[in-house]
Amino acid sequence: VMADGWTDIKNRTLVNFLVYCPLGTMFLKSVDLSDTPKTADVLFGIFDKVIEEVGPENVVQFITDNAANYKAAGEMFAARYGTFYWSPCAAHCVNLMLQDLSERDDMKLTVHICQEITKFIYNHAYVLNLMRKFTNGAELIRPAQTRFATNVLTVQGIVKQRSSLRQMFSSDDWAAYPHAYKRKATTVVDTIFDVDFWESCVHLLKICVPLVKVLKLVDSEDRPSIGYLYESMDRAKEAIRDNMKGKKKLYMPIWKIIDERWSGQLHRPLHAAAYYLNPAIRYLPTFKKDREVEYGMLDCIDVLVSDSKEQDAIHMSINKYDTASGTMARDTAVRCRTTMRP
After folding, report:
1. Is residue 68 pLDDT above 60, yes or no?
2. pLDDT (0 to 100) of residue 147
3. Domain ranges, ordered by start, for the chain
4. Does the pLDDT value for residue 144 go beyond 70?
5. Which of 75, 144, 234, 278 could crosslink 342 through cysteines, CB 3.0-4.6 Å?
6. How far apart, in whole angstroms, are the C-alpha atoms of residue 227 and residue 265?
7. Per-residue pLDDT tens digits for 9-26
8. Number of Cβ atoms within 10 Å of the Cβ of 211
9. One-letter-per-residue 3-state SS of the chain
10. What does the pLDDT read at residue 150?
11. What is the distance between the alpha carbons of residues 205 and 122, in angstroms, rounded to a whole number?
12. Alpha-carbon distance 335 to 234, whole Å?
């Protein structure tokens, strides 16, 4: 069950409740909370009615955003039932990681400069048409306030067009622009030819692009992301470490920011179990069955399966799954490891 809070054009605070199952996502209902105090107790009562409507025995996970009141309410009723998990929205948490990184002074300055460049170009028709001429029609992504990921893509777009922008600002066409020597224009030109600026852009991308890839994964509707989230976060951190040439003084502060959101808010036993039960990952040489993964699997069995005989049967089957024996060794099963949804 997913709770998606938003504000409509009439400034009403609404929460949409949706149900996800293997057949797809279904809209359940919408609740208007405009005149309702959004305390944890009030949200608990609203969420509890939704759970009763769906049937607690049918719920594996209840997802909300990561606001403190939603988190408190979610944990309250998950503890009450004890048969499913509350989890914050993965996309929201990854976006918060990016926002936390954006508070670093170096990144904040780089994003601001890139925003100024795109504003200058897109606010002047002559410059915009000139840019499109030199980039063969390619656009620079304009900054937006909704997600820091959009700002990362703006920086990435500018870096991709580095040569084209330099050619443009050194061309006769640019020299013919009547306002080419005004202060805002010369500031942008100086920035485009500033080596330190480009180094700061590349540094930002080395840190943020791996997380943007995770965000795209969890925001995608192509396949359920829960079976890939655990590994994708590990890969993102490893990519950042490698991009920083393995220097701890460079990547450890970044890891700390990520881990505060991942370990403290997003990571749940369900993510570890989904990682473990994803055959596309489980049978790779890079699979890591560490204590955290094993605990996640065992915890899910205890929480999601109430019948002790079923629990015992699952435990007996785990060895066959681990060793790819029995039905898991069939040719069909092996072929479908990477083609079927986990």
Report:
1. yes
2. 66
3. 2-88, 90-266, 268-342
4. no
5. 278
6. 18
7. 888 888 999 998 877 889
8. 25
9. CEEEEEECCCCCEEEEEEEEECCEEEEEEEEECCCCCCCHHHHHHHHHHHHHHHCHHHCCEEEECCCHHHHHHHHHHHHHHCCCEEEECHHHHHHHHHHHHHCCHHHHHHHHHHHHHHHHHHCCHHHHHHHHHHCCCCCCCCCCCCCHHHHHHHHHHHHHCHHHHHHHHCCHHHHCCCCCCCHHHHHHHHHHCCHHHHHHHHHHHHHHHHHHHHHHHHHCCCCCCHHHHHHHHHHHHHHHHHHCCCCHHHHHHHHHHHHHHHHHHHCCHHHHHHHHCCHHHHCCCCCCCCHHHHHHHHHHHHHHCCCHHHHHHHHHHHHHHHHCCHHHHCHHHHHCCCCCCC
10. 85
11. 23
12. 26
- Asked whether the beta carbons of 306 and 312 are under 8 A apart, the reply is no
Topology of domain 2-88 in CATH is Nucleotidyltransferase; domain 5 (3.30.420)
Nearest by Cα to 158 from 125, 187, 188: 188
194 vs 35: CA distance, rounded Å: 52
Q: Average per-residue pLDDT in the chain?
A: 89
Whether 339 shows a pLDDT value over 60: the answer reads yes
**Tens digit of pLDDT for each residue in 282-311?**
888 888 888 888 888 999 999 999 899 999
Q: Are strands 61-64 and 85-88 parallel, antiparallel or unpaired?
A: parallel
Instruction: Say if pTM beats, i.e. exceeds, 0.90.
Output: no
Find, among 3, 12, 20, the residue nearest to 71 by Cα: 3
| Contact by Cβ (8 Å): 181, 224 | no
Mind listing the pLDDT tens digit for each residue in 171-229?
Answer: 999 999 999 999 999 999 999 999 999 999 999 999 999 999 998 888 776 667 788 88
pLDDT > 70 fraction of the chain, expressed in percent and rounded: 96
Give the pLDDT score at 342. 67
